[in-house]
Specification:
single chain, 10-stranded mixed sheet, about 25% helix, about 40% strand
């Protein structure tokens, strides 16, 4: 096992943005890649999003992804106005790097490992297509960022 979440391989760097259209155009130009489509986070009936342990049926965002390595993505996230980890970040810190993500197996166990490490789970849900789940953990005290765990089924 490698580290707290069973891996030390970074799979994603997430950015919170105010304008996903303008930002993905600039990233595409900078990276020399096509402009990817964007889509919303999905319906609550599927995602079952929880913010700070409570159901958050209105929390949502627009997302776009750039593949920038064999197993690495840049994710752009434009939150809606509803309180969420995404909206709170934009309101409190502005645009910028939001999280580092790692692919895991056994989400509940990995969340517990992170909590034992001193992190707090602040948002959790399923992918919009139901093909997996995610959890954001507040690791600012020790790691100076949010950590996202991703488990694809």
């Amino acid at each position: 096992m490698a580290g707290t979440v069973g891996t030390n391989i970074l799979t994603q760097v997430g950015f919170i943005v105010e304008d996903i259209e303008a930002t993905k155009q600039k990233f595409a130009e900078f990276l020399g890649l096509p402009v990817p489509p964007h889509f919303d986070g999905g319906k609550f009936e599927v995602t079952q999003t929880q913010v700070k342990g409570k159901p958050a049926p209105e929390a949502n965002c627009l997302m776009a992804f750039f593949d920038v390595g064999a197993n690495l993505q840049i994710e752009l996230i434009q939150p809606n106005e509803t309180p969420s980890v995404w909206r709170d970040f934009l309101n409190e810190k502005g645009e910028g790097i939001h999280h580092l993500a790692f692919g895991v197996r056994g989400m509940d166990k990995m969340i517990l490992n992170c909590e034992n490490f001193g992190m707090t789970c602040v948002q959790r849900g399923k992918y919009g297509d139901g093909g997996g789940e995610y959890a954001y953990l507040d690791a600012y005290k020790d790691l100076k960022c949010l950590v996202e765990l991703l488990e694809s089924y």
